[in-house]
Structure formats: structure tokens, C-alpha cells
Design a protein that fits this description.
mainly alpha, ADTRP_AIG1, Androgen dependent TFPI regulating protein, transmembrane
């Protein structure tokens, strides 16, 4: 009972935190936004924002659905993966050349603390989530297929926006040749698959050990 209450309290905290971030993002003064940054679809074209909204709903859903519900824990596994992907690829590109992913103009509308809330502070929350409760992973080939479908869906959305308005969602994409763009998409998808396997292995290692200890007792 104590563990369940702790899990519920933690997910309530996550729901409140991510909802707070979503509201802050939606309240951004668009008059101060550099031309083109939010053109077409606004915030809804950025994977970070889509993750925030999705995980806020997932955290709220966790408060309503029984902890044993496999569907809820399966959804959480994918949201954790997406946030891991965002944090990893954002900081890899940012540290190389921030203008490729988060231009200095963005500092005028998104303060540093909010940027870190979106791309840094989420990481310890993810680690707590992984160790707080076991997560359900389908058979690997099915999990990979679903992940591939999700990746293809978002990449299609990014390409559609480019076709529609003639501008890439992320500055980096506009710097790449068609071949380099294909390689970047392939490498990004490969990174997502790698993080999926890492999460699966970490989950099995952590909770498998705990189950074995329980049986021994």
C-alpha cells in the first residue's frame, strides 16, 4: 500500500509539473517570437512539446487507472523512451552548435531555467520513473515495429511541414543535403531503437533482481 501511495503521489507531482510547463509554453508571447519559429502548427511541430503534453496525460491517466494495468505501463515505457531521445539528441546537437537546434534568439522568449526544465530536469524524473515501478515491454519485434511506426509518423510530420511552408522544423535539417538528411533520419531512428533496448534491459535487470530476492525471502 505504501509503495502504491508513493507511486500515486509521484505521478501527481509529474502531472502538475508537466501541466505547468505546457501552460507556460502556451502562454508564450508570440509577438516576441522570431519570424518563422512557430510558423505552421506552432508548438505542435516540436517533439519536446508533444512529449510534454503526452506525458502530462500519461501521468494523469496513471492516477485514474489501476497500477496493474499493463496498457498504462506500456504507454509510460514509450513516453520515457521519447523523453530520453529528446534529451540525448538535443544536448548532443546543442553542445556541438546550438544554432542548429536552439538558436540564441530563443533565449528572448524561453528563459534558461525553462529550457533546462524541458531538456534537462526531465532526465532525473525519467530515472525515478524507471526504478519506481516495473514497465511492460511487448515482444521485442512488436515493440520495435511500434517504435518504427511512431518514428515514421513524426518524420512524416516534419517533412510535411517543410513541403507546406518551405522551412524545416529544426535549423539543422536545412543545413543537410538530401543524402545527409536521410542518414540523419536513419541515425536518429537507430538511436531511438538503442534507447528502447536499453530501457528494456534496465527494466528487466532492476525488477528481475527484485523478484528473485522476493522469492528467496
Amino acid at each position: 500500500m505504501g509503495a502504491k501511495m508513493g507511486s500515486m503521489a509521484y505521478h501527481f507531482l509529474l502531472f502538475a509539473w508537466y501541466t505547468f510547463l505546457v501552460v507556460l509554453m502556451l502562454l508564450i508571447d508570440t509577438d516576441k517570437v522570431p519570424m518563422g519559429i512557430f510558423a505552421y502548427a506552432g508548438l505542435w511541430k516540436y517533439l519536446t512539446f508533444l512529449n510534454l503534453v503526452s506525458y502530462a496525460f500519461a501521468s494523469y491517466g496513471h492516477l485514474l487507472i489501476k497500477e496493474k494495468d499493463k496498457g498504462d505501463r506500456l504507454r509510460n515505457s514509450y513516453f520515457i523512451l521519447l523523453f530520453q531521445f529528446v534529451v540525448t539528441i538535443f544536448w548532443m546537437i546543442f553542445l556541438y552548435d546550438r544554432e542548429l537546434v536552439y538558436t540564441k534568439e530563443m533565449d528572448r522568449i524561453i528563459p534558461s531555467w525553462l529550457n533546462h526544465s524541458l531538456h534537462t530536469i526531465v532526465l532525473p524524473f525519467l530515472l525515478i520513473e524507471i526504478f519506481l515501478q516495473p514497465h511492460v515491454y511487448p515482444e521485442r519485434k512488436h515493440g520495435m515495429a511500434l517504435l518504427g511506426l511512431c518514428s515514421a509518423g513524426y518524420l512524416s510530420w516534419v517533412v510535411w511541414i517543410y513541403i507546406t511552408v518551405g522551412a524545416w522544423v529544426y535549423p539543422l535539417l536545412g543545413k543537410l543535403s538530401p543524402l545527409a538528411l536521410a542518414v540523419f533520419f536513419a541515425v536518429s531512428t537507430g538511436l531511438a531503437f538503442s534507447l528502447y533496448v536499453l530501457g528494456e534491459v534496465l527494466n528487466a535487470y532492476t525488477w528481475g533482481k527484485k523478484r528473485k530476492k522476493t522469492k528467496c525471502i
